[in-house]
Amino acid sequence: MQRKHFAVAAARTALVAAIAAAFPLSASSAFAAPPEPAEPAQKPWLDRSLDADQRARLVVKAMTQQEKLRWVLGYFGHDFGKSKKHPDALPQSAGYIPGTPRLGLPALFETDAAQGVASQAGPAVRERTALPSGLATAASWDPKVAYAGGAMIGSEARASGFNVMLAGGVNLQREPRNGRNFEYAGEDPLLAGSMAGQAIKGVESNRIISTLKHFVLNDQETGRNELDARIDKAALRMSDLLAMELALEQSDAGSVMCAYNRLNGPYSCESAWLLNDVLKRDWGFRGYVMSDWGATHSTVAAANNGLDQQSGHEFDKSPYFGGALEEAVKTGAVPQARLDDMVTRIVRTMFAKGVVDNPLKAGATIDFAGNGAVSRQTAEEGMVLLKNEGRILPLAKTVRSIAVIGGHADVGVLSGGGSSQVYPVGGLAVKGLLPATWPGPVVYYPSSPLRAIRAQAPNAKVVFDDGRDPARAARVAAEADVAVVFATQWIGEANDAQTLALPDRQDDLVASVAGANARTVVVLETGGPVTMPWLARVPAVLEAWYPGTSGGEAIANVLFGAVNPSGHLPATFPASEQQLPRPKLDGDPKNPELQFAVDYHEGAAVGYKWFDLKGYKPLFPFGHGLSYTTFAYSGLAGQVKDGRLHVRFKVTNTGNVAGKDVPQVYASPLSVKWEAPKRLAAWSKVALQPGETREVEVAVEPRVLAMFDEKSRTWRRPQGKIKLVLAEDAAGTGATSVTVDLPASTLDARGRPRAR
User: Fold this and answer.
1) How much is the pTM?
2) Among 197, 276, 450, 684, which one has the highest count of C-beta atoms within 10 angstroms of its own C-beta?
């Protein structure tokens, strides 16, 4: 979820004051309820033999009008001491929706977010396990890893008393400086949709509800409440919406969260085209649409155009779905049938996801050791070895001396800021960092890379320098066999990076250390792509992202080869901002209330597609990732079976150690024109022993081979030849290719075959 920032750097105390001013009533008077009707003698909706649709219709029919209205208005759950909150909401939570006890329907307790059960600074914080960033999970290119991580954080959500988890961010990385890129899954719709879909599915395996968010084009934080995202509708269907469509199909997410921004004019949370036409009509979505916190702007337009539940109404100008909605239904401005549909969607999801049949139990235990291992394994699978000149990595355990420099690596690893912040088990590794308030605090998890490196090389002399003085750090590095520099970039919700350069003159630090020690390894803990002016002087670079609860151990395992790196970039690393569709970030962070538009003129040509279209050479291409072994491809072939293209090929580990490869299949049309020269069509993650060969078969998502026609709401692929390229990355490293002739095909908006 996101929270409306009244000013980007506003302190939490300002938010408290705003809420208190808007809602001055005492808790007892504000939440006083009229007498409840009698409990019914029979409750057929609790019959588990009925399907969710039947149960929802039965229980909504038994509700009073007041009971219906309670389901569509959500309260903020966080406790700021004297601030307003619903008395039954859990402290340090995202939100609360009262239940209907007389009908056997429990309340909804909501928690952020996709990295774990979130908790910011303040009273009653929960120490919970944090996954690595969403980009790290996406970099694993392994849906099983995404599912396992989702299942883990979902289990902690349930054990913490929550039955709704606001996970499932699927916003494409159109803007590499976006402060929330670390929550998402990269730039390609097929990869992002598949990985996020499995993560949501994992969360909901705990019989709780998860969300798909932020619907749609919430792709920068600067001016997020005011900007109008302008884009061609067909291009949007083939990019950001395709990612969300695929994620929804794979997960059956119970809820979709609409975004802050406008979309081609209307706000996302009152866009009839987006919510009614695309989501509910074309995709057949049967769950409910919740607003982001502060993203509701009306009663009649929002309700009639597809919003089902106003979330955290205290962040909006008014409780639009409270008394105003009641009056709108009375006057007919919002039909009674629409209110019934809103409530039916909510309770149907509760039945479908097991929330009603599997009530929350207090005092559930959490296996922090086991969950920490899941987090560590996710980090290990997602770390990307960007460069390894001269095979400086893995480090030998016989190394005599190591200089570890910068990034608070002596005590912990960095995490991203905002509503997704998970408070670490063991407390803050570094205290006193700014910003201390929203979107802070800046949090380092107490998983020390320095300690883990010493454990991997017990006979080595391992010294630490904080890196604040580049000249001193260089002297320390000059005396060591190997120097490992930890470089960090903190970003978060409401906090876009203003540049892709590392902050706090860390580029100077890396350059100084590299000048003093030719065997310098750089470990990046960043929320997304960064530029590297020192790259030619550094033999090895490891992208560790925000590595989560057990990140220090994961980094050391990769550096020393206990784990062979197998992560691949889910997003292009530009050589400079000048290569971006918008070299300058739109909007003014100093004036967040100003309205402006962002022209997504690149359309569906996002990320590597834009680079292909313009002929730009990135710093590192989408899909790039090195290993401590080598791989070779052969036997590439394509065949249409049951109306779907299947691709076969062989992968061989040609090196001396076991490893995992991610062979990527890209498709290029030879007889028609797409938005860019090629698209990712399929991939597989393959584990191989030295010398082992395995044959792999992957099925290509049909929509990836087609163009969307907005007028007919269909995906169309004319008859013609498609070139399939099997490669290590989007730049075509190690490529082999084959051409296949495909018949014409027309698919409906859900990707199902349709008669021409």
Assistant:
1) 0.94
2) 197
